Every structure is written in C-alpha cells, then in structure tokens.
Amino acid sequence: MKTFKESFDIIIEKKMKLPSGEKVVKELSRLGKKKNVTAVISKKGSKFNLYVDGQMVDGFKDEKSADKALKEFIKVMGI
After folding, report:
1. How many angstroms from the chain centroid is the CA of residue 32?
2. What is the DSSP letter of 32?
3. 66, burial (CB in 10 Å: exposed 0-12, middle 13-18, buried 19+)
4. 32 exposed, middle or buried (CB, 10 Å; 0-12, 13-18, 19+)?
C-alpha cells in the first residue's frame, strides 16, 4: 500500500509532466510577492533539477544548492 506522500508525489509528477525517471524531492507553492509562483525540485540519478512554474531552470548537484538558487532566482526576477 502506498503512503500519502508517495500518492501525493505521483499526482505532482503527473501534473508537472516531469520527464520519465525523475522523482519529486520538494514541492514549494505560494512563492514570490503575489504568492502565485510554484516550484518543484526533482531528482534524476544524482542530479537535482529546478522547475519554476513548469519550466526547467537549471540542474544542480545537491538539493541545498537548488533551494538556494530558487531563492536567488525569485529575488533577481522580482517575482
């Protein structure tokens, strides 16, 4: 039987239409000044990918650097 987190991750993966083999590590919503930005950090192998509003931003070597880059991206873009 699947846990709630596993079921929720499957729903997010289907909604985001992630490439095959990628698993959701962290899903963040209500980001930015207007609280209308969503972000997903996914993992494929040893690489972490950052998606903002469904668009891939970049790949990172660990989750911490992807999270840091997300905060910087929001700050620079003025979202």
Report:
1. 15
2. T
3. buried
4. middle
Whether the full predicted model's pTM is greater than 0.70, yes or no, is yes
Question: What does the pLDDT profile of the chain (79 residues) look like in tens digits?
Answer: 778 777 777 776 666 677 888 888 998 888 878 888 889 999 999 999 999 888 899 999 999 999 999 999 988 888 7
Residue length of the chain: 79
Say how far apart CA 12 and CA 30 lie, in whole Å: 15
Secondary structure (3-state) at 24 = strand
Question: Of 73, 72, 71, 49, whose CA–CA distance to 60 is shortest?
Answer: 49
Q: What is the dihedral of CA 12, 14, 19, 23, to 10 degrees?
A: 40
Per-domain residue ranges of the chain = 4-77
